[in-house]
């Protein structure tokens, strides 16, 4: 299943949002619409997940039984699931502009909207469709395109036309006309398409993203060297950006997200192109460099539960700031520890308990003898060691997986063992007794996230739940229970869901965290193309 396999259907809660506009402060602003979590459509979301089990074997690797493929080029876009996204805005495509509601997604890089040539996919009949015949600036491309998301695939073909974002008009922009949207997600979704704000490195078809100003090429243009531009499309985009700078509409190649988490207010938030609005945050902005272009990826330090380090990211983890999801996704090992601390009930794993029953004391003894933690599971015989981390001994399961069947039990045994090592290490650092450690690890087995990624908590116990903190750029960013728990419904029928889901991506790409709207709502997030950095500050 996908990294965002926790699916929640949504309905529109605010329509009276100001249209995108440029202002005399040098910014272009995009008003965002805010959705609420809706209990009624969660069944459709569950059906989508079951459909995914059958149709997406490559995504099925993503769960407790195994880990995402070991390829360094793991396509995280394929894990995305937009059923849980809350914030949308409006753009125009063509001349005159045809309006579409899109997710502004920093976790992908393509723009796509439904096509009038989408005849056989039911979701297309429920959304605005692009009609090339109505646009005087349309240019035919015709190259086929397909994007696989965790929540379903879309396919179609590339076209070129003007795209209006606020008062910025990007000419000859490549985008995908979607002619096939087979997913339940796109049927019940309240958005028409997706506008990617990631880097070109992850763009399908190598299409230039709508808002893409290469930090190397932009200064070349400003110094009157337009021939240095690599493509006519990029040149035109630089020209647009240059004109906006010249006119005082945009100051710099930066955009920032302010997500309004106040449920009593209708305004969903705002994307500001051209800089940072000081009214959107408090205090200082903490910046960290982009470590790998593609996603807005950066290095992150340890995760703390109630002020105590989990130790999992003591040597560092990677993280992505992703506006395309509401959730916080991270290594299942840590998510399980968080679930235990907040009292979330998941699905008990028999494999996890079997590992503890059979190997728990041996693992403990090896750690007390100061064995290399990453080699412990190979020493007990459930993993092999590839020089960096444990690898399942179920080699046959890879062949089985390619044949379309499930991976073997060895995958889960190896994963369970590796988690047990980390859990025991954490408790040994706290000088817990061996009996207490084994009891604790068995309890964690009960707290493993369910296959749906959904873990329920008691709404009446939020006040007793711990602060969960993330270390970024040497600064600790806290999230309170009211901030990381999602409330579905109202009154006595309300349900509270943990905002944390498991995501297991192995080195060298992982361990990886995805910081979605739960985090970005509390911390105003700045995406700086010019200086290749991401910034966070307390949201105002």
TrEMBL record:
Q: Does the keyword Nucleotide-binding apply?
A: no
Q: Which intervals hold domain Peptidase A1?
A: 87-537
Cross-referenced Pfam families: Asp, SapB_1, SapB_2
Regions annotated as coiled coil: none
Q: Where is this chain's protein located in or outside the cell?
A: Vacuole
Which cysteines share a disulfide bond?
A: 118-124
Gene Ontology cellular-component terms for this entry are: vacuole
Q: Which domain of life is it from?
A: Eukaryota
Sorted alphabetically, which keywords does the UniProt record give?
Answer: Aspartyl protease, Disulfide bond, Glycoprotein, Hydrolase, Protease, Signal, Vacuole, Zymogen
A Gene Ontology molecular function term of the record: aspartic-type endopeptidase activity
Family from the record? Belongs to the peptidase A1 family.
Q: Can you say what this protein is called?
A: Aspartic proteinase
Task: Give the organism, scientific name.
Answer: Solanum bulbocastanum (Wild potato)
């Amino acid at each position: 299943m996908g990294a965002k396999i926790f699916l929640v259907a949504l309905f529109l809660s605010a329509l009276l949002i100001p249209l995108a506009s440029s202002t005399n402060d040098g910014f272009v602003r995009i008003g965002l619409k805010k959705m609420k979590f809706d209990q009624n459509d969660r069944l459709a979301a569950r059906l989508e997940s079951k459909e995914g089990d059958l149709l997406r074997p490559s995504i099925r690797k993503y769960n407790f039984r195994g880990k995402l493929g070991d390829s360094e080029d793991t396509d995280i876009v394929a894990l995305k699931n937009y059923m849980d996204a809350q914030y949308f805005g409006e753009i125009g495509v063509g001349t005159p502009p045809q309006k579409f509601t899109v997710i502004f997604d920093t976790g992908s890089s393509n723009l796509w909207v439904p096509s009038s040539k989408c005849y056989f996919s039911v979701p297309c009949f429920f959304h605005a469709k692009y009609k090339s015949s109505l646009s005087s600036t349309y240019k035919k491309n015709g190259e086929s395109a397909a994007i696989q998301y965790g929540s379903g695939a879309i396919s179609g073909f590339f076209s070129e036309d003007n795209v209006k974002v606020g008062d910025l008009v990007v000419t000859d922009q490549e985008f995908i006309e979607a002619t096939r949207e087979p997913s339940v997600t796109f049927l019940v979704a309240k958005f028409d398409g997706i506008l990617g704000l990631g880097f070109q490195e992850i763009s399908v078809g190598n299409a230039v993203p709508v808002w893409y100003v290469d930090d190397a090429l932009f200064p070349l243009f400003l110094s009157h060297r337009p021939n240095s531009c690599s493509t006519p499309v990029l040149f035109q985009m630089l020209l647009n950006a240059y004109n906006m700078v010249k006119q005082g509409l945009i100051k710099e190649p930066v955009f920032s997200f302010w997500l309004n988490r106040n449920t009593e207010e209708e305004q969903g938030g705002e994307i500001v192109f051209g800089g940072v609005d000081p009214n959107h945050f408090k205090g200082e902005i903490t910046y960290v460099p982009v470590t790998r272009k593609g996603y807005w990826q950066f290095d992150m330090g340890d995760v703390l539960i109630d002020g105590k380090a989990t130790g999992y990211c003591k040597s560092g983890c990677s993280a992505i700031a992703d506006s395309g999801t509401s959730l916080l996704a991270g290594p299942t090992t840590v998510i399980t520890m968080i679930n235990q601390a907040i009292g979330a009930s998941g699905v008990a794993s028999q494999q996890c308990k079997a590992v503890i029953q059979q190997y728990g004391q041996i693992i403990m003894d090896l750690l007390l003898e100061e064995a290399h933690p990453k080699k412990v599971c190979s020493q007990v015989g459930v993993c092999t060691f590839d020089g960096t981390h444990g690898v399942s001994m179920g080699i046959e399961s890879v062949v089985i997986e390619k044949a379309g069947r499930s991976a073997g039990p060895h995958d889960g045994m190896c994963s369970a063992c590796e988690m047990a090592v980390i859990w025991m290490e954490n408790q040994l650092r706290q000088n817990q007794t061996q009996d207490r450690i084994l009891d604790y690890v068995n309890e964690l087995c009960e707290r493993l996230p369910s296959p749906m990624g959904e873990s329920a908590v008691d709404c009446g116990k939020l006040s007793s739940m711990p602060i969960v903190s993330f270390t970024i750029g040497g600064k600790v960013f806290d999230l309170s229970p009211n901030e990381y728990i999602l409330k579905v419904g109202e009154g006595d029928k309300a349900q509270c869901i943990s905002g944390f889901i498991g995501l297991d991506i192995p080195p060298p790409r992982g361990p990886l965290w995805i910081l979605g709207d739960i985090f970005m709502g509390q911390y105003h997030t700045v995406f700086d193309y010019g200086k290749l950095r991401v910034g966070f500050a307390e949201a105002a």
